[in-house]
Amino acid sequence: MSIVRTDVPMTSWLCEQIIDELVRTYPFCRSELLTTTAFDRPIRTLVIGSGERKVLFTAAHHANEWITTPVILKFVEEMAQAMENGGQLAGVDARELGERVTIYTVPMVNPDGVDLVTGLTQPGQLQYETAAALSQNYPSIPFPDGWKANLLGVDLNLNYPAGWRQAREIKFSQGFTRPGPRDYVGRAPLNQLETRALAGYTEAVDPALVLAYHSQGRVIYWQFADIEVPGARELGERMAQVSGYALEETPFESAFAGYKDWFIQNFRRPGYTIEVGEGINPLPLSQFDQIYQDNLPLLVTAALG
């Protein structure tokens, strides 16, 4: 019986319960508290493997892209099961994978926002009403389904010091000048607990590669600015081939201040944004099985490099 639930909307509480159960069940898994949010929700890591190569996979920077969290959790569970049973993962021996690679994950970067979109935070609660008040600054964005930010109204994937001022200029020109559901860059880069903690964790792990999971579009973005990372395009092409996703350059208006942008800039190593599924966020769980089928070989390919 699977520990990871893929039949109900993901919440911060459910994510934490799943991580705890995975760690209890499989000796290959371990977890630590990365930080707690401004509203006291935990952000947890989940790590599997013991290899020399280190990679870091993240999901749910954006609240209404929470379907990416069970992708990461299910991948870790299936890898742990295969390691225990001597099985394979996307055609790769799982024990060998675990001996070659240590896979660090942060399955839910934005638990405050996720709980708003998935309904754990409900009308009448102070956090809900605070977010609803912020959303009134942007009446054209559906509430709460259009919410991407944390509950302070900062878009976490626009809060990294990698062209942050350019991101600010672009988003301000589009009218996103104050806290709200999406596209507000914050008052300064890394001024949010979530982004500061993830940047610090990334520096501590010092990974060879990062993936940042988002939705939607079935696209892999691989570049930042004019930085040429050796092998990044070639690995991106392999990930595109095994997943059926397109490898593309990031659109200019979205090309700054993201997590993978910061990683490429600071580490000069491959970093990718993976946009799963198709449609309007939040994507329905009916898409999950196809999303996972597409991304399992991508995740294994990224892990091996």
Can you give a write-up of this model?
By secondary structure, this protein is α/β, with parallel strands linked by helices. Helix content is 39%, strand content 16%. It is built from 10 helices and 12 strands. The strands form 3 sheets. The protein has an 8-stranded mixed sheet with strand order 1-4-8-5-9-12-10-11, with helices on both faces. A two-stranded antiparallel sheet has the order 2-3. A two-stranded antiparallel sheet has the order 6-7. Helix 8 links the parallel strand 10 (219-221) and strand 11. It starts with 11 loop residues before the first helix and ends with a helix.
Please give the structural blueprint.
Elements lengths: L11 H14 L3 E2 L2 E4 L5 E3 L1 E4 L3 E7 L8 H18 L2 E2 L2 E2 H7 E6 L4 H8 L7 H10 L28 H10 L19 H13 L3 E7 L3 E3 L10 H12 L2 E3 L10 H9 L3 E6 L11 H17 L1
Parallel strand pairs: 5-8, 5-9, 9-12, 10-11
Antiparallel strand pairs: 1-4, 2-3, 4-8, 6-7, 10-12
Helix pairs in contact: 1-2, 2-3, 8-10
Q: How is the biggest beta sheet arranged?
A: 8 strands, mixed
Radius of gyration: 18 Å
Shape: globular
Low-confidence stretches: none
Mean pLDDT: 97
Query: What is the structural class?
Result: alpha/beta
Q: Treating each run of at least 4 consecutive H or I residues as one helix, how many helices?
A: 10
Q: How many angstroms does the end-to-end distance come to?
A: 31 Å
Which series of helices and strands comes N to C?
A: HEEEEEHEEHEHHHHEEHEHEH
Number of separate strands: 12
Physical arrangement of strands within the biggest beta sheet: 1-4-8-5-9-12-10-11
Strand content: 15-25%
The level of helicity is: 25-40%
